[in-house]
Amino acid sequence: MKGMCIELRYAIKVTGVVQGVGFRYYVSQSATHLGLTGWVKNEWDSSVSIEAQGSIWKLNRFLKDVQHGNRWAEVDPLKYQTIPDQHGERGFQIHF
User: Fold this and answer.
1) pTM of the predicted model, to two decimals?
2) What separation in angstroms does the CA of 19 have from each of 34, 56, 82?
3) Catalytic: which of 9, 24, 61, 70?
4) Residue 42 catalytic?
5) CATH number at residue 43
6) Which of 31, 34, 39, 81 is most buried per CB count within 10 Å?
7) Are 65 and 29 in contact (CB under 8 A)?
8) 95 belongs to a structural domain
9) Which residues contact 9 (CB under 8 A, 6 or more apart)?
10) What is the pLDDT of residues 13-47, one digit of tens each?
11) Is residue 33 in a domain?
12) Among candidates 45, 40, 46, 1, which has minimal Cα distance to 19?
C-alpha cells in the first residue's frame, strides 16, 4: 500500500567498552535524530541493552550508528533480533 510504513522493533545487545563513555547518550541522540522510539540502559555485565522501534530504513541506519559508537566507545559486533512492537510508545528514553 502506498504511503504505508511498517514499523519493526529490535532488541540490541551491545558489548565492548560501552559503559562510562557517554554511549547511552550517543545512542539516545542517534535514535531521537532518526525519529525512533524505545530505550537504552546499562546492564550489570558491562553491556548495554537497547530496544528501538521504527521503519526498517531508520533501524538499519541506527544499527550502523550504534556499531560505530562515539569516540570513546569500542563496540563489539552487534547482536540483535526482531521483537514485538510497542504500540503507543513515545520518544526514546535513557534508563538509569
Assistant:
1) 0.93
2) 23, 27, 24
3) 24
4) yes
5) 3.30.70.100
6) 31
7) no
8) no
9) 38, 51, 52, 53, 82, 83, 84, 85, 86
10) 999 999 999 999 999 999 999 999 999 999 999 99
11) yes
12) 46
Q: Quote the cell numbers at residue 92.
A: 526514546
Quick one: pLDDT at residue 4? 57
Strand boundaries in the chain, DSSP class E:
7-14, 16-17, 37-42, 48-55, 74-75, 79-83, 92-95
Active-site residue 24, yes or no? yes
Please check whether residue 51 is in contact with residue 43, taking contact to mean a CB–CB distance below 8 angstroms. no
Helix residue ranges per DSSP H, the chain: 23-34, 56-68
The C-alpha cell at 61 is: 541506519
Total structural domains within the chain: 1
The number of residues making up the chain comes to 96
Give the active site residue among 9, 42, 71, 90: 42
pLDDT of residue 1: 46
